[in-house]
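Hey team,

Filing this mostly as a record. A colleague (T.K.) asked me to run one chain through the structure pipeline before their review meeting, and I want the input and output archived in the tracker in case anyone asks later how it was produced. No errors, nothing strange. Just documentation.

Input sequence:
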Amino acid sequence: MHSTTAPLGAIRRLARRRAQHPRPVTPRQALTALGVSIGSFASLQSLLVPVLPVMQRELRTDAVGVTWALTTWLIVAAVATPLLGRAGDLHGKRRVFLVSLAAVAAGSIVAAIAPNLGVLLLGRAMQGLGGAMFPLAFGLVRDVLPASRVAGGVGILSALIAVGSGIGTVLAGPLATVIGWRGLFILPLAGVTIGAILVLRGVPSAERAIGGRINIPSALLLSAWLVALLLPLSTGSQWGWGSPLVIGLFALAAILIAGWIVVELRSREPLVDLRMMRLPGVWNANVAAILVGAAMFGVWAFFARFVQEPAATGYGFGASVGTAGLVMLPMLVLMAIVGFFTGPITRVVPLRTQLVAGTILIAISTAGMALLHGDLGLLTVEAAVFGLGLGVSYAALTNLVIGSVQASQTGVAGGMNANLRTIGSALGTALSTAIITGSATAPGGEPTEQGYTIGFLVLAALAALAAVVALMSRRTRVADEVIDDEVLAAPEREAVLAR
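Output structure:
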């Protein structure tokens, strides 16, 4: 028990010391602290994917059981993201951010020493609480950075989230051969521990905690429908898409969503202001987030596998894990680089234009993977274009949302946008799995080339649809007028938002 509480205790002690001896900080320090933290957490989304067979053997479970190591993290992160994001809005983003870091650190320790599957799932659930770091980090950027640096800061953090989410697929296999799958948890543990120290030193508690409470009925309904929706999306391929359990969960999710909407609209203090979710810029970014998330994780789930398919299939390259990682490396590098140029780009190119351009690049590159995949060099170029489009889209999505809501709503608004990307990722993975692995098998039991072609084309269509949705948005820089200082009364603010 001591090992799981030590990270939180150490963070509290350091926080007290820093409060007694504050020192001036810079935007670069703040961005470094937040970037290290959320990049480390994001890696947990895909870190275990390449080593699931090894974990299955060592934990003496089956394929369905070990998959829960991914599903548990996904569901807990989805529930924690809006709830703790709202808690940050109410009681202080920096405080809740540090609590999330401590939960990830403690969960990493539990998962690393887990003697069986049950303890591993407990550790993964604790890690999932870190999902709140995404919206909280964006809110902190808005609170502590000068207005001219906010767009660039959001772009950098968005790129790091995207890179962190994909880097696990590239690095986990080679690293696990050296340090074992348990050793992989050292990476996020070290990252969030360093991140917590940097946050305490480099991120001041500058925001005004507005107080209030979390709407409990709304929180319970939101948590329930997220679980009811993500559970069948994540496990439908094992349970069977036509099984009564999967169909029943989808039906339950629909009922719970309807009930949640009614409760939110009738509440004087809603958890998620649904009127806010209808604002121009917000709803477009949220719908696009689902589609971009689906395309992104659909590609990440199968691109490396496609490159590694045996030559005996007639289309595969028989590449090693290391070669597949090198093919994906330009994708990750470009995702990171583009984030650092978001600020200057935003001063010249509107966010809507960036989102449209980014989603078009995703669609073109994914269509290329489907139709032009006979050469490994060409696939590397297509992966690089995909990474460029993803980096641009991720930054634009988040900037659109936080630039369209009040400062006191950035946590929950950013949390819902991140959650919708999570739902999209589960949807994209499930859709790709159904199409690709459901195709007639090639020699050796592998999917056919046609299965991959259709799967990548469907993902390209989703990205193209995201571009159409982005084109429907209107320019909304409400932040410049009413958000930073919140100088307008509620009726006047509504009038500005309606423009």
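Quick notes for T.K.: Residues 324 and 443 are 21 Å apart (CA to CA). The mean pLDDT is 81.
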